[in-house]
């Protein structure tokens, strides 16, 4: 039996905000706390300190299993008093594959500092004041505003130093070396030409090895600064900054940001966003890839949502490392009184064509054969949920998984369609790893690995 989870949400007092270094209206300073959990975009979102409970699951039923455990602990929906993300709350990371032996987890912090973006909150546009939530599984503990503030200050005092740099820190091969991966992509392209499959997303990993311990807070802080418009996530060793919103559910209002189509900015230093737009729209391959990604999402959401709205014209999303062709999809669900939760919808739409391919089943079999690695949490849903079914799940891209104090796997993947050039895809995979490698203070090795 899961221990019952109780919570209290209170406004963050000015005094505590000052003690936590939160006077500039951004949650950024809290990422320096050792072990902090984070979901931040443009300085807003949620930071978790300490840990009250953890729910784990593996296998095909991992979404439903986690949801059942969280519901049992919170006594069902309805705990959030008015604001999405207040009340009972958990950070979430779910593996890409149902076959992965790696655990999918919901982590309930001891304290959550919440300051979501105004337009994501239930107040729809009104600005939200930051709050504190304290969470407990001890039935004898009395949750008071004073305790919430005292616990936040106590936990925030545990700071994590930055990593000491060493010339011996290195980027080393992962499951496949660069030549092996290029050969695997070439096999993927010929498979597309022979089989009933239009797109497969092929990923690769590299392993960062460091002399002194990796600092989670340093990675999170650097990503949140450099990739302000992305969702920076840090969930127990899964750290990155994703530009792609798998699914956001706030009060039955559902949104997703679909990406497909990538141009490496480093390869085109003089190009402007207008050049990128012209290049995307002039490329039948890019437009085709993008259309496949939207169609897949729309068809997965259809059973839940009769009215689906998506941008008729895709837009160009400009990031420091790449440009993407992007489309925002939004939809209202649950008018019949059976609103699906963020976990329900994440399960329904994952894995999208953006990270798997089309058709999904054939693509996933080919990927497993060619990539020769378990993706673990890479390309899986990462984000948060509350007890009322609200939540946000990004796709865990542009990220790293710390697998020891001094080593981390960094991932990057590319949509492969008929006519894809394996060497260009290799360059694109490095472009997608650049945010994390930069955050480590490392570069792509000068010789092939
Ligand atoms: C698979 C990744 O990115 C995905 C693939 C893209 C593409 O192939 O153009 C673009 C954005 C993402 O949907 C990754 O970053 O690892």
TrEMBL record:
SUPFAM superfamilies: ADC synthase. One of its GO terms (molecular function) is isochorismate synthase activity. Residues 178-432 form the Chorismate-utilising enzyme C-terminal domain. InterPro entries: ADC_synthase, Chorismate_C. GO terms for biological process: salicylic acid biosynthetic process. Keywords: Isomerase. Its EC number is 5.4.4.2. The keyword Isomerase applies. This is Menaquinone-specific isochorismate synthase. It comes from Falsarthrobacter nasiphocae.
